[in-house]
Amino acid sequence: MSNAPQHRLVYIRHGETQWSRTGRHTGSTDVPLTETGEEQARALAPVIAALRLQSPTVWVSPRMRAARTAELAGLTVTGVEPELAEWDYGDYEGLTSVEIRQDVAGWTVWDAVIPGGESIDAVAARADDVIAKARAAMADGDVVLVAHGHIGRVLAARFLDADPRFGRHLPVLPASASIFGYDHDGVPQLHQFGRTGYDAVGYGGR
Length: 206
Fold this sequence. Notes:
This is Histidine phosphatase family protein. The chain is an alpha/beta fold. It contains 6 helices and 6 strands. It has a 6-stranded mixed beta sheet with strand order 3-2-4-1-5-6, with helices on both faces. The radius of gyration is 16 Å and the shape is globular.
């Protein structure tokens, strides 16, 4: 008989901020949700309700945009998890990829140096720690992680036992929910990815 958790892991990216709308790298800067971001988070509430979460543990990033998203989506926060903080972008905080590439041709967060910031291996180590805690908590109920775009994409990759760089293939919209679990053999699986309660096709942000 498998000892894999029978409950689900739900990853939610926070709603739109002005910086995410314009593609600015937002790590430690505590940017609030825009009005659109709040609408996106409210629209996520019925998506979450439809999951019929069982005894959920809800952990949020230390940033207010994550906590506000959880609140508007109808979740009761269990605690703040420091390791869910977004990637530390160091000297590139607040810059867009286009601006960074003016000095470093072809730069991406996935495969280049971030001066004064975190390496992808450091972010992956944080993700692995969160997943270990979540897996333990999944013995008692579903676990919801409300966090950010890049850390969430690394979390998704690592939960699936993939290289953290696989996260570059997993773009996530603001205020979207992705559901993960295990099969009867304990193999980690992606059940649903990037569900939103708003018109994602018509959304023009990042």
